[in-house]
Amino acid sequence: MKWQEALSDYSLYLKIERGMSKNTVQNYNLDVQKLITYLKTYDMNISPLEITSIQIQEFIYNIAKSINPRSQSRLISGLRSFFDYLIFENYLQTNPLEQIEAPKIGRKLPDTLSVSEINLILETIDLSDSNGERNRAIIETLYGCGLRVSELTSMKISDLFFSEGFIKVTGKGNKQRFVPIGKLTQKHINLYKNQVRIFKKIDQKYKDTLFLNRRGKQLTRAMIFTIVKNLGEKSKIEKSISPHTFRHSFATHLIENGADLRAIQMMLGHESITTTEIYMHLDKSHLKKIIDEFHPRK
Q1: For the chain, does the N or the C end have fewer beta carbons within 10 angstroms?
Q2: Is the pLDDT of residue 117 over 90?
Q3: CATH class of 115-290
Q4: Distances (CA, A) of 85 to 14, 98, 195, 263
């Protein structure tokens, strides 16, 4: 396999399967292209399936002289993603960046929306539009259940257990979990499902898929990103908003209202609680409230 062939396939994967924007795909490509340029400069005629950890370490050491630690970390992450893709496609068994550590940098906190900002986004949805009820249900579900975008697009009608107050979610690595769902989110899903979806001409392959496009097929990740982006622009909220923003907001608002971190970890489907702990850093006023309420010398 040649580098450019692998890079072309990887680009399609990022765009189509992961729903990344053109700019994001270009940035990921640039990470790999830097490695390709380095190999050419030093006449290293090796394929992406032959390159070793030592050779990649030498490349990173070479380029580290001219970029800051955050850029180094971004580069390593981009290369790791590229080789993860080759593993995903069964071209490789192990990732040559597995043992390569990125430089320590400050943790970037995720963007979140306030409750009023989420309400504003919901208010901008035109419910008279043929997709209005669907889009409202999508936003309510992203925020109400803290789902990843891939978990939302793959959700089935048979995954809804409203009488028990739960939905079944299929997360990363096909791991399944049950997530509580509130009455308001149930209401908007039912409005879409029972008053809009039933009138669609549905592709038989997707008859159990909850959220459908105009052609009666499963929505793509890219389409969800477009829906959210358009609503963000329409609401004139000056933040970078993506489907993941609602997941971050879900976790942050639960933390701010005193929810247990372990419970939030289970709802989000985080393998490690350290991933969930980032939400403890988002609201300092919440931390002060904890001290005021629970410390003996308040």
Answers
A1: C
A2: yes
A3: mainly alpha
A4: 9, 13, 41, 32
**Which of 172, 187, 215, 239 does the annotation list as catalytic?**
172
- Sheet hosting strand 166-170, strand order edge to edge: 160-161, 166-170, 176-180
- Residue 115, pLDDT above cutoff 80: yes
Q: For 37-78, what is the HEC assignment? A: HHHHHCCCCCCCCCCCHHHHHHHHHHHCCCCCHHHHHHHHHH
Radius of gyration of the chain (CA): 22
Q: Coil, helix or strand for 80?
A: helix
Query: What are the domain boundaries of the chain?
Result: 3-88, 115-290
Q: Distance between CA 17 and CA 150 in Å, rounded?
A: 10
Q: Of 74, 80, 136, 247, which one is the catalytic site residue?
A: 247
CATH C-level class of 3-88 = mainly alpha
Q: Give Cα 240 distance to the centre of its chain.
A: 14
Q: Is 295 a catalytic residue?
A: no
User: Is 172 assigned a catalytic role?
Assistant: yes
Residue 102: pLDDT band with limits 50, 70, 90? confident
- For residue range 188-247, what is the model confidence (pLDDT) as tens digits? 999 999 999 999 999 999 999 999 999 999 999 999 999 999 999 999 998 889 999 999
Catalytic site residue 279? yes
Tell me, yes or no, if 247 is annotated catalytic: yes
Taking the C-alpha atoms of residue 298 and residue 65, their distance in angstroms, rounded to an integer, is 49
**pTM assigned to the model:** 0.64
